[in-house]
Amino acid sequence: MLDKAVSILDVYRPDGGSFRLTELAARAGLPKTTAFRLIGDLVRLGLLERDGERYRLGGTLFELGSLVPRRHDLRESALPFLQDLFESTRQTVHFGIRDDRDVVYLERIHGHDAVPLPSRIGGRLPLTCTAIGKALLAFSGPELADAILAGPLPRLTAYSIADPLRLRTALEQTQVSGLAYEEQEAALGISCIAAPVFAGAGEPVAALSVAVPREHFRPAHLAPAVRTAALGLSRTLRQG
Known about the structure:
Elements: H1 2-10, E1 18-20, H2 21-28, H3 32-44, E2 48-51, E3 54-57, H4 59-65, H5 69-89, E4 92-99, E5 102-109, E6 124-126, H6 131-138, H7 142-150, H8 164-177, E7 180-183, E8 190-197, E9 206-213, H9 219-239
Antiparallel strand pairs: 1-3, 2-3, 4-5, 4-9, 5-6, 7-8, 8-9
């Protein structure tokens, strides 16, 4: 029965949202009566919340997720550097880790006038469509990059890179410069610059980025702040 309850929670991947009982049952592939019983249990446990005729993820899931040791420790270590990066750029700052072929966002800091973005804390986007994802992918070893480049590349906008050769070139440039870029590939009108974060030798443990409206994107002005934040956090993680 546990696997059926998890199948209901999986309906909310990757974007959350809210659903009616019939929608949850259909998407989870469960009979309506079974879904009704399980949803009632999930609401009672705080894993789902009811809002009229719709259900959304409950606060208990957020509380449990925030306690996952690796993610919690990384986020706590990163916060001072992310806040400094936001103060120096006054633009939206992201912090994320790799989970298979996606980036999962652990933190997002923005001002009151932030532009709409597809990213959210706990959400995920394809590695190849984001600056953070490219920063992670570029330093995650050739096997992963080769596997991703061998298949169809996901596209979130018309500007998402669909050509494997073009993406490989971008990853090679990131390996040289230590910086990754995104030009309207996850959201129209938004550009990003990112850098990987290391805790020692080997693959990066995370990456951070600054997202800017395309018309205000000045990579040369943002690069020093992004590099400084990534290097400072990497140094802290190595010493910890």
